[in-house]
Design a protein that fits this description.
heterodimer; A: mainly beta; Archaeosine Trna-guanine Transglycosylase, Chain: A, domain 4; globular; B: Rossmann fold; 2 domains; seven-stranded parallel β-sheet; about 40% helix
Chain lengths: ~90, ~375
């Protein structure tokens, strides 16, 4: 099956959707076993590669890009609705 | 062995184009420049909105650095400079900065040269004379260490930082390995990446400059945006899947590759070091391009995900689409489709295509933005006009 997500760095806990992934559809990348998306992941948006706890860092490019604002399950869409910026907290 | 060629300048620099530049010192004389552009279509004419009304020292410094940087630009073989007379950036003030340009520079002033029609007539004659003078200059072999190549991104989407900028980063590393200099700016898009960039600084001084540059950018962002500072990424960026400026920033700085950062230069300042250089310039594409051009970049890569056609006067800009949809939608504006990585194309193959194209562009092949004449010129200002 063709990859539909991209993991930029081995340390990352999110992957980038290469196209829109529907609810229940498997997220596939050559580095990992496929797992179902828990909600629709718009193309170029992030999907959680594992369970992420509230307050945990979101890693992309092998670097911290945000902090989770609540517990996020593997397969969930990761975006502004469940994140905080590490720099300017609300 | 790859052969690249360019035009040798008297100051030891090399251009990859040999343009005649027609530059006003102030917006008041834009009409004269427009008359010239109609009569001498080969000239690169840059009407602009600046030159007066801003008296602060920083704005004056930037203005004179950018205007003189364009006159000195290695891709420029000759210049017709159109002044007014009473403006802040008048030709007398600019003269000390350009008297050693080492190329034909014709200076005219509307208030002294008989008004706008007469100045246009004189300007047209000068432009035609300089064009015929420089058109016979031959290309000569060029070595990579004579090249300064700029990396820019604008109208980014989340794929910019996944496909296009990653590929540009690979080209950056390739260039630095060959002795070329690579520069990128956009300090607001470095916010959140201080630790990443500082780790790569050549020495403690450069590390400190990086830290201070990003701190200033962050402070300014907070001052201007307040609680909305986190939203310094545009709604378009958010739609594209980027959640924070740190995420956008990481996707931005990957375009400079992974080599040591040898110098931090001010906006529009020419680097004195080789290798990878950071410019303390703004994130806005137009302003950023002007700073990178005035530093003497002969060529620019410019990635875009949402799709901007912007090029820059006298500077070939290679547009790299981050996704196939925008590549197809704006095919006439795009030079490279980095979105092909999504369809499974290896990054190495994409990098090879970009290097091959870059060599052809250095040797004279026009980029899409050059063919289409998509010149944009804006520059950074600090204060509003009086």
């Amino acid at each position: 099956m063709k990859d539909n997500v991209l993991i930029i760095h081995p340390r990352d806990n999110v992957a980038v959707a290469l196209r829109t992934i529907d609810v229940g559809e498997l997220a596939v990348a050559k580095e990992m076993e496929g797992f179902p998306a828990l909600e629709t992941i718009p193309a170029s948006h992030k999907i959680a590669l594992r369970d992420i706890f509230q307050g945990e860092e979101i890693i992309k490019y092998g670097e911290t890009v945000a902090v989770s604002g609540r517990n996020i399950k593997k397969g969930e869409w990761v975006h502004t609705h469940n994140l905080e910026s590490k720099r300017w907290k609300k | 062995m790859i052969q690249i060629s360019g035009y040798e300048r008297k100051n030891g620099k090399f251009g990859i184009r040999n343009h005649l530049l027609v530059l006003p010192t102030v917006s008041c004389v834009n009409g004269v420049v427009q008359r010239l552009s109609r009569e001498v279509p080969e000239a690169v004419c840059i009407p602009h909105a600046y030159g007066c009304g801003r008296g602060g020292p920083r704005d004056l410094e930037i203005l004179s650095r950018i205007l003189s940087g364009l006159i000195h630009h290695p891709n420029v073989g000759g210049v017709v400079l159109i002044g007014l007379g009473c403006e802040v950036s008048n030709t007398k003030n600019l003269f000390p900065l350009i008297k050693e340009a080492g190329k034909p520079v014709e200076v005219l002033n509307v208030q002294e040269d008989g008004g706008s029609l007469e100045t246009s007539r004189k300007g047209i004659a000068a432009a035609r004379r300089i064009l015929s003078e420089i058109s016979s200059q031959p290309r000569v072999p060029l070595s990579w260490d004579k090249l300064l190549i700029a990396m820019e991104c604008g109208g980014s989407d989340a794929m910019s930082g996944v496909t296009a900028n990653v590929a540009m980063g690979a080209v950056s590393d390739w260039l630095v390995e060959r002795g070329a200099t690579v520069i990128f700016g956009e300090n607001t898009e470095m916010i959140g990446t201080t630790q990443v960039l500082v780790r790569r600084a050549k020495n403690g001084q450069v590390a400190k400059q990086i830290e201070q540059m990003i701190e200033r950018a962050e402070k300014l962002t907070q001052e201007v945006m307040g609680n909305l500072a986190n939203l310094v990424i545009s709604p378009g960026n958010m739609d594209g899947g980027m959640s924070t400026i740190a995420e956008k920033s990481m996707g931005c700085i990957v375009k400079g590759g992974t080599t040591t950062i040898n110098q931090v230069v001010d906006y529009g300042e020419a680097p004195s070091e080789h290798g990878l250089i950071l410019q303390d310039g703004p994130g806005y594409d137009g302003d950023s391009m002007a700073g990178l051009a005035a530093s003497g970049s002969q060529l620019m890569f410019f990635s875009t995900g949402r799709g901007t056609p912007a090029g820059f006067p006298a500077l070939p800009v290679i547009k790299v689409a981050s996704n196939t949809r925008i590549y197809e939608a704006m095919k006439d504006d795009m030079d490279v489709n980095a979105g092909s990585v999504v369809e499974g194309r290896p990054l190495d193959e994409l990098r090879a295509e970009m290097i091959d194209l870059m060599i052809r562009v250095i040797n004279g092949e026009e980029t899409r933005a050059e063919v289409n004449g998509m010149d944009v010129f804006t520059l950074m200002t600090v204060h509003p006009p009086f």
